[in-house]
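Input record (one chain):
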Amino acid sequence: QVQLVESGGGLVQAGGSLRLSCAASGSISVYSAMGWYRQAPGKQRDLVATIGPTINYADSVKGRFTISKDNAKNTVYLQMNSLKPEDTAVYYCNAHKIYLTGGEFDYWGQGTQVTVSS
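The corresponding structure, as predicted from the sequence alone:
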């Protein structure tokens, strides 16, 4: 059973930094991509950053957030700098897997709260 466990969220003042971690229960090399999504109250879940064959960022976080991974530790990170109040949300780790049969599936962590005060 795949488990993704996020950590590193918390309360920070605007302009501050946080680093989120997502530890997977097994090798992350089996996934075609991993990433971070966020969901603010009353809003849909949106992509923040993904890492796979390429790295992609939402326009709103480009230049401030950096996604990385450590295959040896089966962990994906999201370094968040210059945080803004609008970054406040629950951040979810995602692992996207493509099976040899052609099927695809998304695995999700339980989420970690990030709150940025003004």
